[in-house]
Amino acid sequence: MLTRRNVIRGIQNPALALTLLRRLFPWDAMRHDPECSHLIRAWSSGRLARVPLGKIFPGVENHNVVLRKPESRIVGWSLDLQELVHMLSVIKVTKAVRILEIGTYDGFSALNMAANMGDTGKVSTLDLPQDQDESTLRAEGISNAVTSGLVGSKYRDEPESARIVQSWGDSTKVDWVKFGAPFDLILIDGCHDYPFVRSDSLNAVNHIRPGGTIFWHDYGQCVDVSRAVDELALTYPVKAILGTRLACLRMTEGVERK
């Protein structure tokens, strides 16, 4: 903390002064610690107010969650553990049983969401068709297309896979109704380029049930995600979750679709 006492201590002890500078400007952490850098970079874009999760979901702290393969996540792509715990806690407090995930990646999020639902729950998760060449997809403007064979690998052969339905397609072109709309919870974590995020956001608002929840991943870190979500927030009460890269919209009573 930058106090008068610590400034004096820093003057008297150059080594301590260096420590204080590193604390104020954590460049080493950003270069060498991906987990830490996510928290810092999550403030690099976006205008939303950041609030504790409990302010949006009172009582969320009273719910326990199950974590599956938590140390197998791929840092920089998967949800961080704090983000995952927040989302799973919301599934518990809202008793979500119909979930749609845009952007399967390796299935880490789908696996954990399925593990925190009842036997009647279903996670529908959508990713791009695997018969398309990754370089071709990138040339078409889909910047974060993933390698064929990786999609869904985390939940494959796991008991929770019985509650997961893998679908294939471009989220901006397919009809979301066929995935089981209206949904209790939607996670938008597909292509992070602006046109896709904007389209996914509008689709999510139109296919979430009253009282349902929409999450966006990488808000504050990815400029295009922040831009699309900030635009939606001009109409809807979207908030950023403190300490994460999550933005959240809860379609509570009184929130009308426009």
CATH architecture: 3-Layer(aba) Sandwich
CA radius of gyration: 20 Å
Count up the domains: 1
Outline the biggest β-sheet: 8 strands, mixed
Mean pLDDT level: 87
Q: What general form does the structure show?
A: globular
The residue fraction in helices comes out at 25-40%
**CATH evolutionary superfamily:** Vaccinia Virus protein VP39
Broad CATH class: Alpha Beta
Order of helices and strands: HHHHEHHEHEHEEHEHEE
Q: Give the termini distance in whole angstroms.
A: 45 Å
According to CATH, what is the topology? Rossmann fold
User: What's the arrangement of strands in the largest beta sheet?
Assistant: 1-7-8-6-5-2-3-4
Q: In DSSP terms, counting alpha (H) and pi (I) runs of 4 or more, how many helices?
A: 10
Structural class label:
alpha/beta
How many β strands by DSSP? Answer: 8
Low confidence ranges: none
Q: What percent of residues are in strands?
A: 15-25%
